[in-house]
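Project outcomes to date are best conveyed with an example. Our students and postdoctoral researchers have been running inverse folding experiments weekly, and each run begins with a structure described purely in tokens. The record below, which covers 349 residues, was selected by the lab manager from last quarter's runs and is presented without edits.
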């Protein structure tokens, strides 16, 4: 049984470049791909948009340990996985070194999760988004084109739906009214991907992520902010009087969806999918689930709507279900529990 299984794994194993590998979704994706027998090259610039300790912590789980070992533009091999997991610290917009990475490694496909993240931060620092999300993305496509790599799965975002009124959001809806620089850069990714698919036959699959949460999550996301405030006895800010809904999706469900788009051959050259839970969760229900799990009550600070924010996100995920058998199954209570368990362990609360 074991020999047959390893033969099967060898037959299908691919070398996959995962950008944003020190990030929340990127880290979990690397873990999953390795468990399925793929070889991974992780790339990240480890910027300080949020606590780099968390990024190094995730890398350490992949066997890429020791901050001093991680030097710009040097490939490091995993202590845990050997050659199957390599990591390079690199900017996506580095026009000298990114093409060389492709030239020196026989990469089969790319999953691009690297981006300057966050809607609110894009109001303060728009140019950071252009470097990584626009220049970096085109540099990646160009490196793929020059080196004959013909499959890209990339992160777009639910924020591209902007001021759209129609719910649930559907990939056939027009998305010409972004309300943040972040959203506009993600829309530009979709346009560039289309161009490269059309000109050079690169298969591109854009995934519009909805609110992802879970262990090792980002400190600027609701789940983290709420838990952190609660366990440190601080009030939480609830915008729009709590009348917000988000398509909260658990990390494992998201990763399974991403893996399916990487492993399965898609018919279309260019495609876009929503990836979310497919059911909106009221922010207040999410908050209640955290209270139930911790047995602590929040101090709630009710605030008006924030600029750049939308009232409700809700993904129509039927296309991803149909084409890739995507089925999110994690209940909010279970997801919240897993996150809080991780948080307490990591921060020794």
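After processing, the design step wrote out the following sequence:
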């Amino acid at each position: 049984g074991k020999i047959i299984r390893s033969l099967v794994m060898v037959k299908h194993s691919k070398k996959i470049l995962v950008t944003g590998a020190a990030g929340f979704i990127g880290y979990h994706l690397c873990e999953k791909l390795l468990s399925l027998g793929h070889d991974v090259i992780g790339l990240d610039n480890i910027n300080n948009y949020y606590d780099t300790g968390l990024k190094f912590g995730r890398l350490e789980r992949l066997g890429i340990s020791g901050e001093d070992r991680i030097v710009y533009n040097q490939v490091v091999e995993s202590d845990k996985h050997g050659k199957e997991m390599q990591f390079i610290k690199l900017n996506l917009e580095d026009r000298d070194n990114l093409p060389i990475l492709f030239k020196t490694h026989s990469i089969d496909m790319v999953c691009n999760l690297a981006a300057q993240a966050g809607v609110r931060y894009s109001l303060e620092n728009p140019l950071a988004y252009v470097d990584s999300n626009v220049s970096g993305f085109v540099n990646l496509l160009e490196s793929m084109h020059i080196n004959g790599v013909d499959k890209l799965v990339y992160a777009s975002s639910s924020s591209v739906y902007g001021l759209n009124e129609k719910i649930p959001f559907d990939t056939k809806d027009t998305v010409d009214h972004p309300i943040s620089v972040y959203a506009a850069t993600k829309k530009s990714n979709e346009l560039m991907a289309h161009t490269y698919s059309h000109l050079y036959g690169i298969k591109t699959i854009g995934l519009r992520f909805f609110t992802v949460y879970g262990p090792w999550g980002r400190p600027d996301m609701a789940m983290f902010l709420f838990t952190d405030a609660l366990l440190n006895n601080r009030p939480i800010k609830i915008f729009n009087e709590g009348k917000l809904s988000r398509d909260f999706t658990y990390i494992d469900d998201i990763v399974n969806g991403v893996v399916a788009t990487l492993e399965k051959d898609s018919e279309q050259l260019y495609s876009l999918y929503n990836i979310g839970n497919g059911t909106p969760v009221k922010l207040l229900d999410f908050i209640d689930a955290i209270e139930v799990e911790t047995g602590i009550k929040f101090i709630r600070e009710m605030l008006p709507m924030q600029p750049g924010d939308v009232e409700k996100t809700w993904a129509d995920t039927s296309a991803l279900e149909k084409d890739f058998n995507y089925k999110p199954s994690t209940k909010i209570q279970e997801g919240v529990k897993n996150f809080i368990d991780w948080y307490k362990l990591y921060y020794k609360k």
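The longest helix spans residues 126-146. DSSP finds twelve helices and 14 strands in the chain. The training component of this project remains on track.
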